[in-house]
Hints:
Layout: H1 3-15, H2 18-24, H3 29-43, E1 48-51, E2 54-57, H4 59-85, E3 92-98, H5 103-116, E4 121-127, H6 132-137, E5 143-148, E6 157-172, E7 183-184, H7 185-188, E8 192-196, H8 202-211, E9 217-222, H9 225-233, E10 239-242, E11 251-257, E12 263-271, H10 278-289, H11 292-302
Amino acid sequence: MEFHQIRYFLMVAENLNFxxxxxxxxxxxxxxxxxxQKLEGELGGDLFNRDGxxxxxxxxxxxxxxxxxxxxxxxxxxxxxxxxxxxxxSTELNVGVMCTIGPDVLSAFLNDFRSRHHDALVILHDxxxxxxxxxxxxxxxxxxxxxxxxxxxxxxxxxxxxxxxxMVVAFAGGHRFSxxxxxxxxxxxxxxxxxxxxxxxxxxxxxYMDRNNLNLRVVCSSQREDWIQELxxxxxxxxxxxxxxITTGRLGWRxxxxxxxxxxxxxxxxxxxLEPSSTADAFFxxxxxxxxxxxxxxxxxxxxxx
Length: 306
């Protein structure tokens, strides 16, 4: 059970309208609905009765509303206590990072930022896209590094594109793919596949393969990027992953070809309309003007694909 699920439930319980609740929580309605469905699965029953457009609390919903309201209030008190404890001139900076974004390139920027802001304490938080808007609009996060395929879909958030990243096919040393310059998607269907559950392009990738009768032979799935890479290194299968998320020279990779988009954009996002702290504003501005191209060139120069 996660705090954003509780907040979404309470907002729907108050408004009895999923569309209005989603707007008030600054998330899309599908994201809010999925979060509540996940909460219902964890609790073991429906929280709402849905009859067409009419929404009412179920008996379980009535029972859980009081309990979840107390949890939400406790969270608010904890946050208030933490803020009162911290010095008013604190330079603590809470930054979200989507788990599929690799550390090598971002760490170069973080090192550069810290060299000019010695008093800043940067706290990195692993986040998912569904909870991002609420975390930013409530002030739990000052800003976030996010990945986007195609239209960014971040609604009211202010975003700035930092760099583009290719998706590649990763494989173990000695694999037949190492002899190829570019890998066709048909070739992937002939291999055992390690499935990255947190991949932003996972759904269109699987849909494309299915439409073209290319049956992926998934042998293992995981939300953990480090586990995925180690499993591929061990020869369990191949996997499609972001180029800069590869953190080891023991992993081979090649770009793939086909009609499916093979790149994504890395963005920095923050809540539009909120007044950021001076440190948060400096962080966002520094990310906008950072020499990402130079950092990527150094990354590629030091990388030797198998």
